[in-house]
Protein: UDP-glucose 4-epimerase
Amino acid sequence: MTVLVLGGAGYIGSHGVDQLIEKGFDVAVVDNLQTGHKEAVAKKARFYEGDIRDKAFMASVFEKEAVEGVIHFAANSLVGESMENPLMYFNNNVYGTQVVLEMMGKYGVKLIVFSSSAATYGEPKEVPILETAETHPENPYGESKLMMESMLKWCDQAYDMKFVALRYFNVAGAKADGSIGEDHDPETHLVPIILQTALGQREKLKIFGDDYHTPDGTCIRDYVQVTDLINAHILALQYLKDGHESNIFNLGSNEGFSVKEMLEAAREVTGKEIPAEVVERRAGDPSTLVASSDKAKAILGWQPAYTSIKDIIASAWNWHESHPQGYGTPASEKE
Ligand code: UDP
Structure:
């Protein structure tokens, strides 16, 4: 089966490409390299550099490739950035998805697995969060993901395009062998920032607020290991191929950890002190996001291999220690 992976050079997408190839899929990748790294794309994939909003470029890819399914990771994904620049999010994420769906329609592609987000829920009324919970996004990023989900829903109704939207909670870690991992510039995510501090690349971790309604006052998030997350995409693709109806699944661990708990776990994993200080809240952050992933387990048969937060952090640490400059590490130092 030929799968077109959009955003396949990014952190999550590159783990997707890697696992698809390991599982015997034929893979084509589109990425504009705005945040992705070409070095992260598995060599057996065919790589097309370009933007999903560029219709002529996208048409040329669909002309060349006999695409049977799309996995769509290509989006901007930072809450803080989206608060400052909402139109960037509506343009790249929402309009980008419109072009993708137009192309799928034009070239008769009926299956899409879509990276959605827990940010679609906003501050939840109950945790763990079920897929049936109300959606009230608190930032333009979450709003854009909800709009993208709506587009998929109406395209299913009108054109019989089948989708699975996977609402990610917090994704962390790296491939177990440390060959690919997380490398953002600038980095804003908690786990890599903690580990860069452990490496001495940052002076201290800034904890964004300790006056939330949580036991230790810091935000609680649900962390899922990136290779487990990807495994759910492949199950979702198979689910669609088997002719099932469109569906939405949470991907998390059913367990929440506060920022302070993550810091403590990372201190244990790395054996480093990791200095930290509490600063102002970051705009747009809900206090607690914890998934119920029971639906993905029951319907997709998803079974995450990583069940301990320390193992998730250790997989990320393995990557950061071996690639202290991310993909910028000179080849001679990569082995
Ligand atoms: N966070 C923090 N300091 C940082 C980065 C993140 O305290 O330098 C907090 C952030 O406020 C949130 C949690 O860590 O409560 C996870 O943030 P991240 O950006 O990793 O993911 P998000 O939840 O925004 O998707």
